[in-house]
Amino acid sequence: MKASEVMQALYDSEVTVRTEPDGSWDGGFCAQIGDDQNGWKHPVIYGRTWDELVTNLAEHVTSKEPDGWFAKRWRERRGT
User: Which of 12, 14, 16, 37 would suit a FRET pair with 6, their CA atoms being 20 to 30 Å apart?
Assistant: First the structure.
């Protein structure tokens, strides 16, 4: 699954994500789940590359909501 497809699937399953470059370490990216209005519900997720960040994000969402629509789709695409 391409990074853009993962991000679209997260959006489709109503998982709100903020992503940005991470200035605290060597040029990677970070993401948070949630929003300013409802709060940031999970720890910050990091990746050295965009693809690594999106994979880490998908794994995190899947571990927190294993029966959710996104998790089912993610496992199906990964063949697990």
Answer: 37
pTM over 0.90: no
Domains, the chain, ranges and CATH? Answer: 3-69 (3.30.160)
pLDDT in tens, the chain (80 residues): 899 999 999 999 999 999 999 877 677 999 999 888 989 888 899 999 999 999 999 999 999 999 999 999 898 887 76
The Cα-based distances of 41 to 19, 31, 34, 52 in angstroms read 14, 12, 6, 21
DSSP conformation letters of 27-78: S-EEEEEEETTTEE-S--EEESSHHHHHHHHHHHHHHH-TTSHHHHHHHHHH
